[in-house]
Amino acid sequence: MKDIAILLFDGFEPLDVYGPAEVFGCIERLDTSGKAPHVIYCSLEGGIVHGSFNTDVQTIALSAVQDGVTMLIPGGPGTRVLVKDQEFLRTLRQQLPRFSQLLTVCTGSAVLAATGAIDGRRATSNKRSFTWVTSVREEVHWIGHARWVIDGDLVSSSGVSAGIDMALDVTARSYGRAFAQSLSTVIEYVWNDKSEEDPFAAV
């Protein structure tokens, strides 16, 4: 499994980041081969990024991230600004081919969609923000009832805690279902392992 580069920006949602980071970061507790993935925090230019609830994180520049890793884009109130930031979107679009897999949590899918890179592909997002997200880029095939959606090398999840379920599923596809179930026990999390079961879709 490849390293995970989490793209941060001012106003990111902490659980969108740290839920999946906990899953991927704890893989090494069960995989003692020395090949467990590492979690990398990056931003467009590097430096300290300010998340919601006074969550400050030191990051490296996106351009410094090694080719071939997995990128995860979280959501949060900051995405409302990013989808209109043409310089950010242009730079992100240029960098995307370097990554082997793209993951999004919550409204992170709106940011990815705004680059135009996933036109015609299937994706989902936070159901409380679904009307706004789908308005950002109508060319994406938005799935309204899904905890997470897999479309090849693109995996998008619904809001906030759904990122943990998605991360466990991504782990299961690399390490096997039993490994992912053991990992969910390690982090004491009840895994919703069925992507089509979305209890918040009716919101």
TrEMBL record:
The keyword Transferase applies. Its EC number is 4.2.1.103. GO terms for molecular function: cyclohexyl-isocyanide hydratase activity; transferase activity. Pfam families: DJ-1_PfpI. Keywords: Lyase, Transferase. The keyword Lipid metabolism does not apply. It comes from the Bacteria. Residues 3-171 form the DJ-1/PfpI domain. Gene3D superfamilies: 3.40.50.880. This is Putative amidotransferase. It comes from Bifidobacterium psychraerophilum.
